[in-house]
Every structure is written in C-alpha cells, then in structure tokens.
C-alpha cells in the first residue's frame, strides 16, 4: 500500500478536553478508510485537522510526502463534503457542481465536460437544470458528492455523509459510495458513528475511543478478532461471560472451563471475559458433553433469523443467540422452552479491558 496521508502523533485539546490524543495512522492512495466511534471520541476534530479547518496542538499531517500541517484549507488538494451538503439554493445542480472549478478560473468546453462527467458519475445528468429545492434528500446528497468529486481531489473527506438519509436510501448509498470510490480511485476518508456503515464500505477502519485509536483493522478482523472489550462491544453484538484465566481455559463460575483462540495471550490467574458472538451459539435439543442447560426467556423473529434470550442458571444476564429461521430446530423454538447450548472454542475470545 503506498501511503497518501500520514497522521503522525497528532493531538488537539479544547480547554481540559483532549479531543484527539496522539493519533498515528496512514491512509493508502485509493483506499476507503473509515473513522468510527461513539459520539465525542474525536472523529470530527481529526477530520477537521486533516481538512485544515483546525490546527493540531502537536504532530504532523503529511499528504503525498509533503508536510501540510501549516497549509491553509483551500490550498490543500483535499475536499470535504459537509453533512449539511451546503448547496447554493439559487443555483442549478450543474451550477453548484461547476462553482468550485469556476472559482479556479475554468470556463467553456473544459468546464462543461468536467461538470457533465461528475454528474454522470453520480447519475444526476437528467436533473442538471433543477434547483436544490426541487430535489429529494438523496439527490441533494449526490449533488454534494459531484461537487466534491469534480475537483478531482487526492483525498475526499466525508463527515457522516449518509446521516441525513433514511435507512433504505442509506443502504443503497453505501454501495454507491463504494462504487464511486473504486471508479474514481480517489481515497475516501469517511467519519461515521454507524458501525454497519463502516463495515459495509471501508477497506480499513480506525475505531476511536476518547481521542485514541482503540483498533485499526480491516472490517473482518475488527469483527472477528476485536482486541478489547470496548471494540467487541461496539462492533456488532457480543455475549460476555466473566471468569478467570487458567492453563486450560477461562474458568467461569458455575458454568465450567472454556477454551478460546487467544487464551495464550492472557496471564494465568487474571480476570477476563469470554466473548461469543450470538451467531456462534449453537442450540441442541439434547444434553451432550460440555453443553449448558438453558431456558428460552425471550424470542424475536427477524425474518431471516431468530434472536433468542437464553437464561442460564445463576446468571442475571441472558445469553443472546442468533439462529437462522431455517434451522431444523427453529419451528419448535418458543418462549419457555428448555434446551441446551454450546459454542465452539475456535470462535471464542478471551478479552480484557
Ligand atoms: P460526534 O459523533 O458527536 O460528532 P465526534 O467523535 O466527532 O462526535 P468531536 O466532535 O471531534 O467528536 O469532539 C471530541 C471532543 O471534543 C468532544 O468532547 C467535544 O465536546 C470536544 N470539542 C469538539 N470541538 C470543540 C470546540 N470547538 N470547543 C470545545 N470542545 C470541542
């Protein structure tokens, strides 16, 4: 991966709040990168520093080998697409898209060609003569995208780009954004608090917690090998069972000793938690060695899958299981049923804070 953007030791405080705390990361040319994390973790502040709207207290921002830390926002080959879209209401769609290039002095056939190309890319050519007030939310969003892409930046920054759209449109646009990124070859840096959005679109994700990188990985690694309880809890759903690390596995009071793929990373005698994804919990209608007796205390039908809450003796929190609705057992599953459950050690993780 050739590096396009390098963020090196960047920090930023607002009074006593350390919004960004010594962050290092590298984004490749042609990469779709997501900054993900709960509200207030510093995503927007980091994005604004990369855009040049905010100066870091410490650290450097390097783009294509050039230190741009002190370079003004409008002199950076970077574009930022605002969440509000910030379209000019009195201009047509084509006028909005042309504006940035006109400001650079472009005119005539070249300008027309570039605008037509950008509108084509976001499939808005038939609406070129409309005003923003005559567009739907999704269409406005496409104009904002075309306006950002028309300048052919090396890096496009998008702050919660799909935040204003409804769920269905958001899912469509996730795929669309990914296509646009691949077609243009421009590196995209997206800020989102929506983990599903980040998992769907990004090549790599940096999950932030309180101004720091909690984990930086490809979506699958983040989901399958979270490095801490925070990451496991933020990405998808996870069951946690507290216990003590032994040589044989995690000893969970009242349940037994359970193996896990990363057991060896933890010191014997320390407290930790066993983490199991709901879809890894298997249901059995008979007792087998190592299976745990459970009682179905809740059941939700999701169409493709069923979500079950399983009460286990001596535990206040139910274990959550997610099974395909087409499962042979599924037709018999109902609230109040007694059954057994287990999970494979190769899909269990031991996690600490
Ligand atoms: P959200 O998803 O809610 O937008 P975020 O992850 O983008 O959150 P930031 O907006 O970067 O988080 O804020 C990080 C921290 O810095 C927060 O505690 C926020 O209150 C604080 N902060 C951000 N901008 C300012 C500012 N201009 N003045 C004071 N505090 C600020």
UniProtKB/TrEMBL annotation:
Catalytic activity: ATP + H2O + polyamine-[polyamine-binding protein]Side 1 = ADP + phosphate + polyamineSide 2 + [polyamine-binding protein]Side 1
SUPFAM superfamilies, per the entry: MOP-like (SSF50331), P-loop containing nucleoside triphosphate hydrolases (SSF52540)
Protein name as catalogued: Spermidine/putrescine import ATP-binding protein PotA
Keywords: ATP-binding, Cell membrane, Membrane, Nucleotide-binding, Translocase, Transport
Family annotation (InterPro entries): AAA+_ATPase (IPR003593), ABC_SmlMolc_Importer (IPR050093), ABC_transporter-like_ATP-bd (IPR003439), ABC_transporter-like_CS (IPR017871), Mo/tungstate-bd_C_term_dom (IPR008995), P-loop_NTPase (IPR027417), PotA-like (IPR005893), Transp-assoc_OB_typ2 (IPR013611)
NCBIfam families (alphabetical): potA (TIGR01187)
GO molecular function (one): ATP hydrolysis activity
Domain of life where this protein originates: Bacteria
GO cellular component, one term: ATP-binding cassette (ABC) transporter complex
EC number: 7.6.2.11
Pfam assignment, any one: TOBE_2
PROSITE patterns recorded: ABC_TRANSPORTER_1, ABC_TRANSPORTER_2
Oligomeric form and interacting partners: The complex is composed of two ATP-binding proteins (PotA), two transmembrane proteins (PotB and PotC) and a solute-binding protein (PotD).
One GO biological process term: putrescine transport
Similarity comment: Belongs to the ABC transporter superfamily. Spermidine/putrescine importer (TC 3.A.1.11.1) family.
Gene field: potA
Residue ranges constituting the ABC transporter domain according to the UniProt record: 5-235
Task of the protein: Part of the ABC transporter complex PotABCD involved in spermidine/putrescine import. Responsible for energy coupling to the transport system.
Record-linked PANTHER family: SPERMIDINE/PUTRESCINE IMPORT ATP-BINDING PROTEIN POTA, SPERMIDINE_PUTRESCINE IMPORT ATP-BINDING PROTEIN POTA
């Amino acid at each position: 991966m050739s590096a396009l953007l390098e963020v090196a030791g960047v920090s930023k405080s607002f009074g006593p709040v350390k919004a960004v705390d010594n962050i290092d990361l590298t984004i490749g040319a042609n990469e779709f990168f997501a900054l993900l994390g709960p509200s207030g973790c510093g995503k927007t502040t980091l994005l604004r520093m990369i855009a040049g709207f905010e100066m870091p207290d410490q650290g450097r921002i390097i783009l294509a080998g050039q230190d741009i830390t002190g370079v003004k926002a409008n002199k950076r080959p970077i574009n930022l697409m605002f969440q509000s879209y910030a379209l000019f209401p009195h201009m047509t769609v084509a006028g909005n898209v042309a504006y940035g290039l006109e400001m650079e002095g472009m005119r005539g056939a070249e300008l027309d060609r570039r605008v037509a190309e950008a509108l084509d890319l976001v499939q808005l050519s038939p609406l070129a003569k409309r005003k923003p007030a005559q567009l739907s939310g999704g269409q406005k969003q496409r104009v904002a995208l075309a306006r950002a892409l028309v300048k052919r930046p090396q890096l496009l920054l998008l702050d919660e780009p799909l935040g204003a759209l409804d769920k269905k449109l958001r899912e469509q646009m996730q795929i669309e954004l990914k296509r646009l990124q691949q077609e243009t070859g421009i590196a995209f840096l997206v800020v989102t608090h929506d983990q599903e959005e980040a998992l769907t679109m990004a090549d790599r994700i940096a999950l932030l917690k309180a101004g720091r990188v909690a984990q930086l990985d490809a979506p699958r690694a983040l989901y399958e090998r979270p490095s801490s309880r925070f990451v496991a809890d933020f990405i998808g759903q996870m069951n946690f069972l507290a216990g003590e690390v032994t040589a044989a596995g995690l000893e969970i009071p009242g349940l037994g000793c359970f193996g896990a793929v990363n057991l060896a990373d933890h010191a014997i005698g320390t407290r930790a938690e066993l983490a199991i994804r709901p879809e890894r919990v298997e249901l059995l209608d008979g007792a087998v060695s190592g299976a745990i007796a459970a009682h179905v205390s809740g059941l939700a039908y999701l169409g493709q899958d069923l979500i079950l809450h399983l009460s286990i003796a001596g535990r206040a929190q139910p274990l959550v299981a997610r099974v395909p609705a087409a499962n042979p057992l599924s037709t018999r599953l109902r609230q109040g049923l007694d059954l057994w459950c287990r999970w494979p050690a190769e899909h269990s993780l031991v996690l600490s804070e």
